[in-house]
């Protein structure tokens, strides 16, 4: 009991019996106490004396009363507030559990689905409070309590009460009106006209920390928000970001936009996007893909349907675009601008400036993927490592790097190693532009798929037939007849798997090409990091 101030115990005697210190923060000390009148355990938060002296007491208590009107299953209610013996305090139920901060201190990260669930629950509390006209202004792990795993938000409206009651005196006293690392740029700049997007930003910081283990640490540039990518993330953060499922990184980048007009308008919009990104993150294993294609191929063989093998539906184009962060609405806008009817959208795999690849009717797909992007600005050689890391992360291969003049080339296999994939990436800065060329030959893939699946049935003939198919693109029917003769219906399965895998690789490389192009633009422009002193001038609303 020695750490309990005698004056405070005396001031609260008859109402609250202080038992022990439960926690200390930058603005208050929390005491576990017994509510004598109602015979219940409570938490009494007592503002630090210097802070209390800086506040207008009546205004503070009036603001606390507004916050006390909130009633929601995920908001810790305020039981009481007042002034006693020069102490300012407010009272809440004592929650038997731990804070999110304690959980993060112990485990550092929270797995994505649990993280999104916690974020969703907090967002529900914020949505209710915003509807009642109350902003939180200080969302952080310390203010999210976990009672038997269920999140509860505490200290609602306290930051507003302190800000309103303290005014300029509080600013001069040096007390932070928010928590660094979690408060929005506009809040850090001292802007008083805050809205729901301030809480969106803080909640996104908490969500990021649950997923990555730390807060972002830097405000995002407009370029990063547009790309939906934390370009300047540390290597450790980048590692974890790349392992996030779905499009979670893009959603977080939007929620953490420096300009509040670029963020989600409400916590509800933010978590809706999070959940959608997580829901789309399920990926089929190779075994599942093979089973599905086998079943579909059998059905196709039994009931053939006419198909246009070289075309993609609008839905397929939208799915491919989504892999690089382009929403379906943008695809349809582009089609309208190009006057392409919805029924005849062209394949996005044919890039301007690159001749169509030879098409193998036998394989059902080109035997080489070639992609090219050209952007304004020259990537300096000092920034080549940024592009190389992106290639390595995407292809999950260290590969080998070489330079010739100012050109950078990355190859999938280091000298002396067997190549799993025959991929080459070349970056060439020249005449104020940067050209990115990606190429992968699929002949080894064709041999592996057709040889592996068909090998048990006439394997020797299959090898010969595949060779004919690759070497005589002008007469694929010869190879087709050879394979059909050798393995019959098995060809359909092999062909389907090859087309699926080739398409999957093309989409992967197309996404890589787009990301490399965006990174090239970013590093060529050398975007300036935003310091705290520049915040006020750059926070357009």
H/I helix tally? 20
CATH topology of the largest domain: Transferase(Phosphotransferase), domain 1
Main β-sheet, spatial strand arrangement: 1-2-3-5-4
Fraction of residues in helix: 40-55%
Q: Count the E strands.
A: 15
Unreliable runs: 171-175, 306-312, 343-356, 415-419, 453-489, 527-541
Q: Which superfamily, in CATH terms, is the homologous superfamily of the largest domain?
A: Transferase(Phosphotransferase) domain 1
Structural class label: alpha+beta
Counting structural domains, the number is 2
Q: What's the overall average pLDDT, rounded?
A: 76
- What's the CATH architecture name of the largest domain? Orthogonal Bundle
Which class of the largest domain in CATH terms? Mainly Alpha
Shape: elongated
**What is the oligomer described by this structure?**
single chain
Task: Describe the structure in your own words.
- There is one protein chain.
- With 541 residues, the chain is an alpha+beta fold.
- It has two domains: 274 residues, Orthogonal Bundle (Transferase(Phosphotransferase), domain 1), CATH 1.10.510.10; 204 residues, no CATH class.
- It is built from 20 helices and 15 strands.
- The protein has a five-stranded antiparallel sheet with strand order 1-2-3-5-4, sandwiched between helices.
- Strand 1 and strand 2 form a beta hairpin.
- The radius of gyration is 30 Å and the shape is elongated.
- It starts with 5 loop residues before the first helix and ends in a 16-residue tail after the last helix.
- The C terminus is likely disordered.
